[in-house]
Amino acid sequence: MDIDQSEISGQRRSFLGGLAALGMAALAQPLIGYAAESDIIDLPFDNGKRTLTSAFPQKSQVILQRTRPPLIETPFDVFDRGVFTPNDRFYVRWHLPNIPTSIDPASFRLDIHGYVQKPVSLTLQDLVKEFPRFEIAAVNQCSGNSRGFFNPRVPGGQWANGAMGNARWTGVRLKDLLNHAGVRSGAVQVRFDGLDNGVLAQTPKFKKSLAIDHALDGEVMVAYAMNGEPLPLLNGYPLRLVVPGWYATYWVKMVHDMEVLDKPDDNFWTSKAYLVPDNHFANVHPGEQGIRQVPISTMLPRSFFTNVHAGQTIHAGQPTLVRGIAFGGVNALKKVQFSADRGAHWSDAALGRDYGKYSFRQWRTTVTFPQRGKRVLMVRATDSTGQVQPNMPNWNGAGFMRNVVESVDVQIA
Amino acid sequence: MSSNLKRIVAVWGAPVLVAAIAAVMCSRYPPESFAQEAKHPAAVAPEVHFSPISVTLPPGATTFPPGPGSDIANANCVICHSTGMVLRQPPLAVEEWKTEILKMRNAFGAPIALDQVDALAKYLGTIDGRRSGTQPSGVDSEAN
């Protein structure tokens, strides 16, 4: 017999001021915990054994995917502790190996040039003192987050779901910087360059471009702080681009150069890399040929369980708190729904404090399972345009843009 | 403590504490309108201090597990990246490895001779630790 949906409490309780209250609530209810941290973590796919490492500067207990250039993942239990991802656990993804290991903030300059009225070279103090401060909470998610779950498997960084994080980004609007230099009419794009380099002369420099209207939208920004602190070096110290709602490939780290272009950027990383099938959910059949490809862009809604994991045992007959995080992608999160019966019935989960449309938001519900046996729990997010996570996973050869409804198998005992 | 005194503390304790905190905050942030504050938020919000930073990054493993073709991998792949992510790939077919190698060669400039591509693809398709159910390959899982 399916459980009575009325037992799933979907009442929209306000969270009594957020995280602290959530922590208290967690203590007051049967908490479903994770095993103690160990040095080895098993990501749930073939060849998924990984080391937890603290070998990287300003980082502790993160999942090692690749040492050089660094590729490190946030362990998923971190997302259960709050909607903001701590800087020292925040995932890292670099493309090119020659990353500066010393930064002198006094001599650092941000250059804006190209199709502008007046090229400028700004110090960090200029940014802090001369421009209005701007702050936004936004999810930074790798295009290939969750690639390890693709079936058939595809090459690339074999991430589980932790190639993402949410932070308060503080800095200045890109619009204010570009207006300071004076964008000339006819400009079409702005190209951003970081301080990283390849080893070989033939390796294309990592540069990304945004359309000029997007760059001037008043939300794209240059961040000099992350969760109230200077950025960790591996997250882009001293400056990184923040492109709310867009995949992290555009969030250029250690950004030091902005070139306003009067024709579309044709460099490798903008025009040939990070392409996705030009259809909804970037979805093709394995082996399908002749699909039009376009640069990846805006993020899709996603939701996750954070205090329940596959194979877990939950006591029958006891009210159990189930919770997680969700985000809307480029649109605001409208609702999160929970199913205790493999998607046959859905009920709205209560949502935690809203830190803005681009932020993670906590969801929670309380459920009682009267019957023993196996259960499949599911969670799905819907954005403000009505777009809902798909029941079937997408597939593409690059392993980009996964956003299938999440499910976990649990044992009621 | 007399019950009277207890009652006074119970009634007035919280308001006095709130007033004290407010007084401290106001002494640090002179009161002004929100519109005024918005004009110079940097003066109100805490300063961000930029300090010179110098770090050391772990070097990463540069030696692939031994086997026919490992010399080609050791001579070419590790110029730009450590061995770890290669060894953490799912089981890929030799043809899929060939595609990866040609991408590294053509898009990123890996100096692999064309006549070595097949041998390298075969090596990567057959090295230890790549089949399901096995432990991580013979490589040090700590820092690669």
Describe this structure in words.
- The complex is a heterodimer of chains A (413) and B (144).
- By secondary structure, chain A is mainly beta.
- Chain A has five helices and 26 strands.
- Chain A has helices at residues 19-28, 124-130, 174-181, 212-215, 268-271; strands at 40-42, 49-53, 62-66, 71-73, 92-93, 102-103, 110-114, 120-122, 134-141, 164-173, 189-194, 207-211, 221-226, 240-242, 255-261, 275-277, 293-295, 302-305, 313-314, 320-327, 333-339, 347-348, 350-351, 361-367, 373-383, 406-412.
- In chain A, strands 1-2-3-4-5 form a five-stranded antiparallel β-sheet, with no helix packed on it.
- In chain A, strand 2 (49-53) and strand 3 (62-66) form a beta hairpin.
- Chain A is globular.
- The model of chain A is unreliable at 1-37 (pLDDT under 50).
- Chain B is mostly helical.
- Chain B is 50% helix and 1% strand.
- Chain B has seven helices and one strand; from the N terminus they run αααβαααα.
- Chain B has helices at 3-28, 34-39, 41-44, 70-76, 84-87, 94-108, 117-126; one strand at 53-54.
- In chain B, helix 6 (94-108) packs across helix 7 (117-126).
- Residues 26-38, 40-44 and 132-144 of chain B have low confidence and may be disordered.
- The chains are: A mainly beta (413), B mainly alpha (144).
- At the A-B interface, strand 2, strand 3, strand 6 and helix 2 of A face strand 1 and helix 6 of B.
- Strand 6 (102-103) of chain A pairs antiparallel with strand 1 of chain B, so a sheet runs across the interface.
